[in-house]
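[Discussion] Sanity-checking designs against the backbone

I'm trying to build intuition for which residues belong where. Below is a structure token string of 181 positions. I'd appreciate it if someone posts a full sequence so I can compare it with mine line by line.
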């Protein structure tokens, strides 16, 4: 058994405090590449993965995410926890339907979270990509980035060097798995 991979999968945790120092290009590339090797329905590779490092756009994404917290907008907070890189996983029209597109995006996101930990980065899956890119400002960002095709925000990741102790996981719940022989 390849213990190293299993250890990464077990020990990765959500990181919610980041150093301001930007990550290295090769670290970002490793994470993005891992995303592109995730399983996707029929191998269609439907998501578009966008890494945002421009501080102005990172700030806008934090603001839009905070403003779009459903039922509980929290303007002024940093939903991406000060991470210097934000990865967006967008669903494109390559997806046969919305459900498959969402599953593909989640698959890609999970690969990138694990890859981030494997290369020594901290990461956290962040909700509300959908709401961000349904907003007029979100759509304007896509336009500015040259993304003209119709896309749907599905997942996003805060990425950077961790500035906190590695959390210990909650115990796994009773009955989480079942083996039928
Ligand atoms: C669909 C999904 C949405 C999430 N959204 C957020 C979020 O908006 N903010 C956040 O801090 N963590 C978010 N998380 C991270 C989870 O809270 C975290 O994975 C969970 O508490 C388990 O902790 P672990 O990742 O350390 O195992 C999200 C995770 C998933 C899978």
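Best answer:
Here's mine. Compare freely.
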């Amino acid at each position: 058994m390849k213990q190293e991979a299993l250890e990464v999968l077990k020990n990765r945790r959500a990181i919610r405090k980041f150093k301001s120092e930007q990550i290295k290009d090769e670290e970002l590339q490793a994470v993005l590449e891992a995303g592109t090797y995730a399983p996707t329905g029929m191998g269609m590779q439907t998501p578009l993965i966008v890494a945002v490092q421009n501080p102005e756009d990172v700030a806008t994404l934090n603001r839009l995410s905070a403003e779009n917290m459903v039922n509980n907008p929290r303007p002024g907070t940093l939903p991406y926890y000060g991470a210097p890189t934000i990865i967006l996983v967008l669903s494109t029209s390559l997806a046969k339907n919305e459900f498959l597109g969402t599953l593909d995006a989640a698959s890609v996101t999970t690969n990138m979270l694990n890859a981030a930990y494997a290369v020594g980065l901290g990461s956290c899956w962040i909700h509300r990509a959908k709401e961000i890119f349904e907003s007029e400002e979100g759509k304007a960002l896509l336009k500015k980035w040259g993304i003209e095709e119709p896309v749907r925000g599905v997942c996003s990741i805060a990425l950077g060097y961790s500035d906190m102790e590695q959390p210990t996981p909650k115990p796994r719940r009773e009955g989480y798995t079942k083996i039928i022989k």
